[in-house]
Amino acid sequence: QVRVVESGGGSVQPGGSLRLSCVASGFSLDWYAVGWFRQAPGKEREGVSCISPDDGRTYYVDSVKGRFTISSDKSKNTVYLQMNKLKPEDTAVYYCATTRFPASTAERLTVAGTPRVGSWGEGTQVTVSS
């Protein structure tokens, strides 16, 4: 059974850091790109970051470039999202899912066709507030 479980969220002050984890089961990280998405209250779910399954290429939405880092540990079948210099606008529920890596530098990571297999996890809440 394909499943992803997110964890690591919490409440931090602006400028703080958190590391999110996405433990995958039922599939290998060698088979699918895995992305992080977030949804703030009243807003649509947006793509934040993604890592490709073969060569480890990474994608970041402009608003998190230089602050967030995605990585994977294939021995643990886990994808991480290190979030530094957090801002109040980063407040959202964060989800991971199998997805399609953007085909070009002009393409954004979207929820279309996501997840490619399995379903969305329950997410993990990130709150950035002073």
Strand segment count: 10
Question: Could you tell me the radius of gyration in angstroms?
Answer: 14 Å
Structural class call reads: mainly beta
Mean pLDDT: 96
**Number of helical segments with 4 or more residues:** 0
Give the termini separation: 40 Å
Give the SSE order as H and E letters.
EEEEEEEEEE
Give the secondary structure arrangement, pairings included.
Layout: E1 3-7, E2 10-12, E3 18-25, E4 33-39, E5 46-51, E6 58-60, E7 68-73, E8 78-83, E9 92-99, E10 124-128
Parallel strand pairs: 2-10
Antiparallel strand pairs: 1-3, 3-8, 4-5, 4-9, 5-6, 7-8, 9-10
Give a verbal description of the structure.
This protein has no helices and 10 strands. It is mainly β and 130 residues long. The strands form 2 sheets. Strands 2-10-9-4-5-6 form a 6-stranded mixed β-sheet, with no helix packed on it. The chain has a 4-stranded antiparallel β-sheet with strand order 1-3-8-7, with no helix packed on it. β4 and β5 form a beta hairpin.
Write a short abstract of this structure.
Helices cover 0% and strands 44% of the residues. The chain contains no helices and 10 strands.
